[in-house]
Design brief:
This protein has 140 residues and is an alpha/beta fold. The chain is built from three helices and seven strands; from the N terminus they run E-H-E-H-E-E-E-E-H-E. It has a single domain, classed as Rossmann fold (3-Layer(aba) Sandwich).
Length: 140
């Protein structure tokens, strides 16, 4: 069954997504970063070229032919994925295909509306019996 981790109190959702992707990649896991729109996917793709500053994180977009070989893939608007290991969602709702993944990471900012929507997603997963963990990054 899919395991779900919530990272809340986040100042910068895109940087947090990069940080978590890098950590997963270092642990030998492949990541799909799923953005809600093309603008967010493009911003995330650009940020990944510079994060972390001291290393390179191989990545590409989900529609590229090399997606199956990359440890980090950026996608949006589709549900054809090169793997089903870790899904990092930047959406405000639970994705309909989340249960295909071994692990889902939900990132929730400090903004009031995003926090409210994050609580709704948390309840959605909890009410369906998914194993969950919570990490509050507000004071880190």
């Amino acid at each position: 069954m899919t395991k779900v981790d919530f990272y809340t109190g986040v100042e910068d959702k895109l940087r947090t997504a990069c940080k978590l992707s890098h950590k997963a990649m270092q642990n030998g896991l492949r990541v799909l970063l799923h953005a809600p729109d093309e603008a967010t996917a493009t911003a995330l793709d650009k940020l990944l070229w510079h994060y972390p500053a001291t290393a390179f994180m191989p990545h590409c977009r989900s529609h590229e032919p090399t997606a199956g070989d990359m440890p980090v893939v950026v996608g949006h608007g589709d549900d054809a994925f090169p793997h089903h290991e870790v899904l990092i969602s930047l959406h405000t709702t639970s994705l309909p295909f989340f249960s295909r993944f071994q692990r889902v990471i939900e990132i929730v900012s400090q903004e009031a509306e995003d926090a409210r929507l994050g609580r709704e997603r948390f309840s959605f997963y909890r009410d369906r019996g998914y194993e969950m963990r919570h990490f509050d990054l507000k004071n880190s």
